[in-house]
Amino acid sequence: MANRSVSSRSGLIADESLGVPTEVYPYSAGLVGGLLGGLAMAAVAIATGLLIGRGPWYPLNLVAATIVRSLQATPPEMLSQFYLPALIVGFILHMLLSISIGFLFALLLPTLPGPPWIWSLLIGPALWFGAQFVVLPAVNPVMSTSVWLPSFFVAHLVYGLVLGAWVQRGGKVPVS
User: Is the C-alpha dihedral spanning 119, 124, 126, 130 positive or negative?
Assistant: First the structure.
């Protein structure tokens, strides 16, 4: 017999035979996991900025160029400089995206087959591919052409692993 439960809040029946999970990961775990993954990703990006000689501000300035459009025409050596508006905008944008994706990960994870660690390994590269080849060319061409691809890939992989580890560590809770 299928595992079924009734949600006291919505009156809906959770039925695994219909693809509706009876247990879910707490959404808060996705939010926190996204935050931690975003911070880990930023650490990789900052380390890369230092490694390639562009400095710690380069990655955030690239992210900020999504909204601070004047940065689209800025030469790379200028993107290496500290610029407070870019720091604020880049950090907020990066963290909002990281936290939002973390929430979606926790929301969707119970509906996906297989163990969570598989999905945490796949989400980073999937996000990297989507960002690098679909989203960034349209919304932030300077980042699309200026980011160091190996580091960008590693940063996304680290994001997925940190997010997945955090979400999985808390375990599932029954739908209620």
Answer: positive
Rounded CA gap, 98 and 112, in Å?
A: 20
- Residue 152 to residues 4, 46, 69: CA-CA distances in angstroms? 42, 11, 21
Residue 6 is assigned to a structural domain of this protein:
no
Residue 15 falls inside a structural domain? no
Percent helix, strand, coil in the chain (nearest 5)? 70, 5, 25
Q: Is residue 135 part of a domain?
A: yes
The conformation of residue 12, written as its DSSP 8-state character, comes to P
4 domain residue, yes or no: no
Please give the residue range of the domain that contains residue 72.
25-168
Q: Please say whether the beta carbons of 49 and 152 come within 8 A.
A: no
pLDDT tens track for 97-151: 999 999 999 999 998 988 888 999 999 999 999 999 999 999 999 999 999 999 9
Q: Give me the number of domains the chain comprises.
A: 1
Q: What is the pTM of this model?
A: 0.86
pLDDT in tens, 42-79: 999 999 999 999 999 999 999 999 999 999 999 988 99
